[in-house]
Specification:
Layout: H1 4-20, H2 27-59, H3 66-90, H4 107-116, H5 119-148, H6 153-171, H7 176-230, H8 234-265, H9 268-273, H10 275-285, E1 292-297, H11 310-331, E2 336-343, E3 346-353, H12 366-376, E4 380-384, E5 391-398, H13 402-406
Parallel strand pairs: 1-2
Antiparallel strand pairs: 2-3, 3-5, 4-5
Helix pairs in contact: 2-3, 2-5, 2-6, 3-4, 3-5, 5-6, 7-8, 7-12, 10-11, 11-12
Length: about 400
């Protein structure tokens, strides 16, 4: 869904350009004339279909076939709206195609319930009923102007086209709520996929790393125990000591891998000391030659330092961690900076490097995954990375999550 700021700007530009343009005789006007003349036959078809099926369905609603027939009529009304939406888009209206009917229960009963509770189906039925009187009026006005009203024809056609578009946008277009629900469902799928991928990564790291080392450690200690108990000679004691020493080294490596894994889940420094200390620790581990400078300012309007929700802190931490990892591995940068500050109820992040540039959040890439995670919490993720550099990543996150605001 296009952001509100962009939609408003587009509407203003369209209003300005259309307001300054004087209607004229041309190909576009004659196309609009044809569409207005077609309103009458289309209105007759839609009216007859809608009134017939809905009235019969309502009349027979006390029988077993009444509600399925009514659901069939609403589904048909939904389908009949497709040509009208196409015509409106051809005239310049921003009318998207709705999502398919959402059937939550299997079988005929689920389909009937979904159809009867489909808001778009009922709005489409209203559109088809209203299209007949409007089709008669627009057909008559257009025909009269074609015959005797040539001086005012462009203005009459422009006015009727605007009304036509208004009817389509208000009754046949997906509502803002439906678009928002679709966006949230997509975001939920992204979050679920990301969580599943993280769980698989943790399982793989445990299986291939610490678990394998602990198994080898148990085997070495078992062999050392056998040598000490079965053959307690100086040679076996020395061999057992070597095995214990090797096992001690394995313990250290296993502990380090477990610490790294725990840091990847949620670092203790983030919980205890917040983003300033946690991001400084991440920057210290970054292998950029010139180092990474970190500046954090989380003061509120009263000057007191505050912390965002823990979930937002975690997203900010892991996002910066992955961005700095990309800087180390792929950018060829000599230095980088991380700026983090509060802007009213938003947490702002700015990560910059002086590398070769060319980074883009295309689907399937690391940056693309970060962008999906940020958008899943109503955030903004922008990448500016021309070839030759520098690269600037701007991130905007809510200060509080929805769950915290409800609480």
């Amino acid at each position: 869904m296009k952001p509100l700021l962009h939609r408003t700007a587009d509407a203003i530009r369209r209003r300005d350009t259309e307001g300054d343009r004087v209607p004229a005789y041309g190909a576009q006007m004659w196309q609009q004339v044809l569409k207005l003349l077609l309103n009458l036959p289309l209105g007759i078809v839609g009216f007859v279909f809608t009134v017939t099926l809905l009235s019969v369905g309502l009349a027979l609603s006390v029988t077993v076939i009444g509600l399925p027939l009514l659901a069939l009529g609403l589904t048909g009304c939904r389908r009949l709206g497709t040509p009208a939406r196409s015509r409106a888009r051809a005239a310049g209206a921003e009318v998207g195609e709705p999502e398919p009917l959402s059937v939550r229960r299997p079988g005929l009963t689920g389909w009937v319930i979904a159809s009867l509770t489909d808001g778009l189906g009922w709005r489409s039925a209203l559109h088809h009923v209203l299209l007949l009187p409007w089709g008669v009026l627009s057909f008559a006005l257009t025909l009269v102007c074609l015959i005797v009203g040539w001086p005012v024809l462009p203005w009459v056609v422009a006015f009727q086209t605007a009304v036509d578009r208004m009817l389509t946008e208000s009754l046949l277009a997906p509502t803002a709520l439906a678009a928002r629900v679709r966006e949230l469902e997509d975001d939920r799928g992204t979050v679920v996929d990301t969580a599943a991928a993280d769980l698989r990564r943790i399982e793989r790291d445990l299986h291939d790393g610490a678990q394998a080392r602990l198994v080898a450690l148990a085997m070495d200690l078992g062999l050392a125990k056998e040598k000490l108990t079965d053959e307690p000679t100086p040679d076996t004691v020395e061999a057992a000591a070597r095995m214990v020493g090797a096992a001690h080294g394995e313990v250290k490596l296993a502990l380090q891998e477990l610490r790294d894994l725990a840091r990847g889940i949620h670092p203790a420094v983030l919980t205890d000391r917040g983003l300033d200390a946690a991001l400084s620790a991440v920057a210290a581990r970054c292998t950029v030659p010139g180092g990474v400078k970190v500046h954090v300012d989380l003061r509120g309007a009263d000057g007191a330092v505050e912390r965002p929700d823990s979930a937002v802190e975690g997203i900010a931490y892991f996002t910066v961690s992955e961005l700095l990892t990309n800087v180390s591995k792929h950018s060829g940068a000599r230095s980088a900076t991380v700026d983090l500050w509060r802007a009213e109820d938003r947490l702002m992040l700015l990560v910059q490097d002086d590398g070769k540039g060319g980074a883009a959040p295309y689907p399937g890439s690391g940056l693309g995954g970060l962008a999906e995670r940020i958008r899943a919490v109503d955030g903004v993720f922008l990448v500016e990375s021309p070839h030759g550099g520098p690269t600037t990543v701007t991130i905007e996150l809510p200060w509080h999550t929805r769950a915290a605001r409800r609480a």
